[in-house]
Design a protein that fits this description.
Structural class: mainly alpha
Oligomer: single chain
Distance between the termini: 37 Å
Order of helices and strands: HHHHHHHHHHHH
Radius of gyration: 19 Å
Shape: globular
Largest sheet: none
Number of helices: 12
Number of domains: 1
């Protein structure tokens, strides 16, 4: 694989995975616009591993607190406000993850490439950008991360199913759901990023199984390079995005999506105009 293609794929995945502009949509569009062959399952696994390690490294303190809360609650039976909050967050992440597991399996094995069309990506990019804008501007900002209820976590999980449509954006739709619940921007983004850990891990594992059956080992160095570069870019993106949300909102991402979606729709329907 050419070095330029490795750099572009890693950059796009690293930037788009955690901000609300759809990584899957961009990765599908790249071969179309650059006239590349589809990057294949192994490259998909590599970029997912890169983003997975990025979010784990960035939130390692939170992950440690969340996982240790199980030990404190179960074995030490320690009762404290911090332990209760971390344990509740763990349960919420589990609840929010559950709906996408059967939905992802069904779509992965039965939908084929129906949802990977340029037309679907274009309209999803536009429609879900509008949803994000409305949720961000209309809903009140009154709740923190630990204020998300179990029913609220389930709602976010149900919304996350729509991320299986390329162009929707997993980050975008989960942030939209959290904003509808009144969760503050930074906390909505943080919950979305923590929620990405089991989702990315599951998606990567599923693709790894498929890739293993292909037994294609000819691009090992390319995979290491693309995973490493994706990790670096994704880590920087998380850092910048969360700090951006301290004083700014999602409007620039909405504008970008509307422009991108419009360009895609014009490209699709241009022969009929």
């Amino acid at each position: 694989m050419p070095l330029l293609q490795i750099f572009i794929l890693a950059t796009i995945q690293g930037i788009t995975e955690f901000i609300p502009i759809s990584s899957s949509g961009h990765l599908i569009l790249l071969p179309e616009f650059f006239d590349w062959n589809d990057q294949g399952l192994l490259v998909d696994v590599a970029v997912h591993i890169g983003t997975l390690f990025a979010v784990i490294i960035y939130f390692w303190r939170d992950i440690f607190k969340i996982t240790s809360s199980v030990y404190h609650k179960t074995f030490l039976r320690r009762k404290s406000t911090k332990t209760d909050k971390n344990f509740k967050l763990l349960l919420n992440l589990g609840i929010a993850t559950l709906p996408i597991i059967p939905a992802g399996y069904i779509i992965n094995y039965y939908s084929g490439d129906i949802l990977r069309s340029m037309e679907v990506i274009g309209w999803a990019t536009i429609v879900f950008a509008i949803f994000l804008l409305l949720a961000d501007k209309v809903c009140m900002t009154v709740r923190k991360l630990d204020h998300i209820s179990y029913s609220g976590a389930l709602l976010i999980g149900l919304f996350q199913i729509m991320a299986l449509i390329p162009g929707t954006s997993r980050a975008g739709i989960t942030i939209t759901a959290a904003r509808l619940l009144g969760v503050e921007k930074q906390d909505a983004a943080k919950f979305s990023m923590l929620l990405s850990i089991p989702v990315i891990a599951a998606a990567g594992a599923l693709k790894l199984v498929d890739a293993y059956t292909i037994r294609d080992t000819g691009i090992i160095m390319d995979l290491v390079e693309i995973a490493s570069l994706t990790f670096i870019i994704a880590l920087a993106t998380i850092f910048i995005f969360l700090r951006w949300l301290k004083n700014s909102g999602f409007t620039p991402f909405v504008v970008y999506r509307l422009i991108l979606g419009g360009v895609i729709i014009l490209f699709v329907y241009q022969p009929y105009i």
